[in-house]
Amino acid sequence: MLELVIVSKDSDPVTMSGTLEDAEQAIALRSKMPSDYIWFKREGKIYITLDQATINLARALWEPWEECERGQADSDTAQKTLASQHGDWKATRSDEPTPEATVPLRSIREKAEQGSPTSADGEGRSEIATLAGRIDELQRELDTLEVRIAGLQSRENMRCLYRSSEMKRLLDDAVARGLAHAE
């Protein structure tokens, strides 16, 4: 995980990736800094850069990266919702019939009680075949949605990884060029 905090000298909001402890540690340095700065960790060491060009590039990289994180959260929520619906469907399917399924079954049972077992058996089989077909259709729709979500999630993950690697490269470059110093 990329651990960094972009701190503005004169305003409270910070931009961060990391822990609350990271943010607190970075903000604690605000009074000692002459301008905006980036606090980040590399290989267990804490670095600070005051280089305005690096800060501007990091902020520019941050905006789409923040979108990635929001997109990832949305994707996770969609996947959890789909899993929940799938679980609900499975529970409904395995435990009790849905209200839509109950009406035909009740009708079949009534016909059977009226003394026409052959007719009821035929209609019952037809109704069951119809319901089984609908269940199969719903399962195919669910499978299609799961594949689409997985594809979207994969693309979103790749974009986020790319943004993260760009940010890491920017900060590594700042260290290599002497624009960031270990604390």
Q: Quick check: average pLDDT? A: 76
What are the secondary-structure elements, in order, as H or E? EEHEEHHHE
Number of domains in the coordinates? Answer: 1
| Largest sheet descriptor | 5 strands, antiparallel
Query: How many separate helices?
Result: 4
Please report which band the strand proportion falls in: under 5%, 5-15%, 15-25%, 25-35%, 35-45% or over 45%. 5-15%
Could you explain the architecture of this structure?
It is a single chain. The protein has helices at residues 20-27, 52-95, 99-113, 117-176; strands at residues 4-7, 14-17, 37-42, 45-49, 180-182. It is of the alpha+beta class and 183 residues long. The chain has one domain. A five-stranded antiparallel β-sheet has the order 2-1-3-4-5, with helices on both faces. The radius of gyration is 29 Å and the shape is rod-shaped.
